[in-house]
């Protein structure tokens, strides 16, 4: 099955990797294929007179594994929580749209991927409960840029955000030292502070003395995603018009990514493929743009031999990669109780617990002052103070304009255009032409 660029595949895989690890923050056990419920959804009685709430999710969101369901059921003895999980969002989301159109087969709570939230808000809002009216839901708990993503123009909150993916740069200290670059995370961050072109300049310095068989960065596609993720308008403008061909953000990201490729700074890998995993194991690249959920993935793939060699520094500019929302369908049988559960699961205290147990970075800024987040360090990454690094990045992310076809546009720019430049040696112009042609066909333009 074809991989999709963005968070669909990566989030599920990375969180499963986190779950498999037992050190520090990273504990628990993944269960992508939980099917302990009646999959028809819709609630009903959970036995012994209890109200059953079914969570319809994709990937491994970690609520069950972090013990949050059990905690909620202890607080509410009349509630029984069960979940159904489809591992991959590209299989889950079309089914969700189908169930919404028919008004049947829906769970009491449905997960919504950030890449799909704009389409759901714009086309399916009447199918969801307005969660802004649920007791305990406070707009100010969320980051200023995150709350609006799940809200309609008239203020109806059809989804409450759980996690986000503020980005940093993970780097190999041992490779940096051999290439004559600083290794202290503060000095490393200063190399490229405020400008992705400074990141490329550091890459040029690295490649002059690069240890044999290594490259500065894993992939040009990863660079593109990191650069474009820090902009407010990317593929659509605020009026809802597709603008990616003329978007300054896309043009800049394209130029930076293709310069990394043509400048031979990349390991020519494709993220979340086996060769990428092997690149971690073999130490083939010195940097990768990394949200919090990727740390567990790196730890698993790079292995014990790279412990304390990897570290985390601030990215040139803040950007977001990843995130999920929880919504309550109007067709659900237990809407009021489901809304209460969603409000509780997305409250700052529970988001902090989810981060501690599963590595999912909170979208609730009110979580950042809690000890489990504020004081977080990662033992594998030389005890990097990830709590402060990712909190700072999260606060600096702009309010992003999301469009219904963001995923199609991004996927083809990266997997068609950038990949041809990086792996096949085609010119940036040829890569752009191939990508835009594919996108136009996909969007019937």
TrEMBL record:
Signal peptide location: 1-30
SUPFAM superfamilies reported for this sequence: Periplasmic binding protein-like II
Keyword Transferase part of the UniProt annotation: no
Pfam family, one: SBP_bac_8
Keywords, in A-Z order: Signal
InterPro entries referenced in this protein's UniProt entry, alphabetically: Bact_solute-bd_prot1, SBP
PROSITE patterns membership: PROKAR_LIPOPROTEIN
Protein name listed in UniProt: Putative sugar binding secreted protein
